[in-house]
Amino acid sequence: MHWDGEQPQPRNALDTPSQCRHCRGMYKVQLVVRPRKGVRDPQGEAVEEALRGLGYDGLQVDCVGRYLALELEAQSEAAAKSLAEDMCKRLLVNPSLETYELTIESA
Question: Do 81 and 47 touch, CB atoms closer than 8 A?
Fold first, then answer.
């Protein structure tokens, strides 16, 4: 206790008893981002054109997207999914042009 009788405040979220490092687990997150249907995919068009230029006929590139793999520390799989979805909304995915799929599992 402090001299004034109050409990010390946690320095960060991991200092609180319900979020201690021992109570949290690591989760593997796999994110696949693709262009939305109907949105032009210039990378996909370039790959298709390059493959045809190399003599590969009879193909159509569906899309070219991104893959991201990371590990998150969270209290549960649901919490890890919530964190990953927040990252997608705030930075990783442009929702007007792209869609995404998340896969989450214990590390």
Answer: no
Q: Residue 60 pLDDT > 80, yes or no? A: yes
CA distance 3 to 51: 73
Residue-level pLDDT at 21: 60
Instruction: Provide φ and ψ at 64, rounded to 5°.
Output: -120, 125
Alpha-carbon span 44 to 4, nearest angstrom: 65
Q: Which residues of 44-53 are buried (b: 16+ CB within 10 A; e: fewer)?
A: beeebeeeee
Domain coverage including residue 92: 24-106
**Summary mean pLDDT of the chain:** 86
Number of domains in the chain: 1
What pTM was estimated for this model as a whole?
A: 0.74
Q: How many helices (H) and strands (E) does the chain have?
A: 2, 3
Asked whether residue 16 is assigned to any structural domain, the reply reads: no
